[in-house]
Write the structure tokens for this entry.
Amino acid sequence: MDKLIYKTAKNYINGKFRDIENKTLDVISPLDGKLISKVPLSSKSELDTAVAAAKAVFPSWSAIPIKERAQVFFRYKTILEKNLDNLAYITHIENGKTLSEAKAEVEKSIELTEFACSMPQLITGEILEVSNGVECRIDYAPVGVVASIAPFNFPHMVPHWTIPNALVLGNCMILKPSEKVPVTASHIAEMLKEAGLPDGVFNVINGDKVIVDAICDHPDISAVSFVGSTKVAKLVYIRATSNLKRCTALGGAKNHLIVMPDANTDMAATNIAASMSGCAGQRCMAASAMVGVGPVDHIIEKLCEEARKIIPGKNLGAIITKESKERIERYITEAEKQGAKILIDGRNAVVQGKEGGFYVGPTIIDNVTPDMAIAKEEVFGPVLAIIRTNTLDEAMEIENSSNYGNAASVFTQNGSYAKLVMEKASAGMIGVNIGVPVPREPFSFGGWNESKFGTNDITGASSIGLWTQPKKTSIKWNPEAQKNWMS
Ligand code: NAD
């Protein structure tokens, strides 16, 4: 057997890593196609054990004052900072993104942790004397045992969208990482322990659909967060909510960048090139379709010049699996057959010395029509489909007709164009002259339409609604207060 770089991933329950006998899957590094680890496919009984541990510790963890719970995450943030280089390296190896992208991902986890430390300020209760001698107050109580189900594309950041906020707010958690990138989760568990998190508050269960379904069905799990493809987000949302759990399920995306002829050429070109190719296009915020309004050839020319500087294996990472690489290349080939014009072709990319890796070079396709699959479906690779329109209204029609609604951006120097897109785009996160309009903390993250199911966003203050329930208390202390309708 190949020597594993990382030991077989283990479940983490009640503060301990556990060996289990179950079947394992290979974990392959997309950088070179080599086996780096293995991941067990846990059975439902493993989940039951983890939920029991979390349920047992919930009364004591939730009884600790929030300011003390936040202290754990102040310490955790320092530990993340200390381990940044190693954590980034793990993400680089298991996910295939470049080392600098992996580093930026861990830095984002640090920012998310920092935000969670402000939860005591954000959930400071409300109190008012509502009638003579009678006070009403609201406290935000944790919901209990919660689950976080994560995708492959941000092994470090996506778990941090949920862990710090949910735990500081007093919940206990089961994390189900993607079986494609299971290595990071063990390190998160170890660092949380080092920060002083009590055993049982955070648990990791590795696995696939079996565990996801079991999470949705488990009677002792109160809330589920999911991040992944729309197909699975829908299944999880329906199953979790039909079992009367609260659920926020983030799905896939098809993000439109609307480019006006008056846009600053350099700014638009560099931003669009970075947006379409960052993390090899495997970002739910990646630019996927550019809608060029009127004469924008000068911008496309500069965009191609920028894209030619993006080299697989150098400043462009790998695609998660061989199957995903083939899927992306099929989209390009199909668009070509349907009459689209390939300006830059990233098919059959090979990185010298890493011939076993899965790479697609940056690909720019012009003359795409709105009915083509590449214009409508999530490609999830470094591919930009350019659709041409004559007017901004036509561009908005195309954007509005998408089933998705994660992000939309406009490149222009005209305030009226920008305002129109800000108002009319059917997406949860809008950019003006920004290619990847991820709202930084304290602003929350979440799309519209089929990019998100559920009412709360997954981060920021909006996540408080997912992880807590408001308790309203009416109080009268003094018998001498006058009798009134509330007495
Ligand atoms: P995925 O849906 O295949 O997997 C996500 C999780 O669901 C994994 O933990 C996986 O084990 C589990 N899963 C897979 N199939 C399942 C099934 N049939 N039933 C139950 N569970 C199942 O997603 P992925 O390929 O890991 O991630 C890429 C997708 O995630 C893209 O569509 C991307 O847009 C999306 N994504 C969205 C956001 C967002 O914020 N909207 C963020 C990151 C990724």
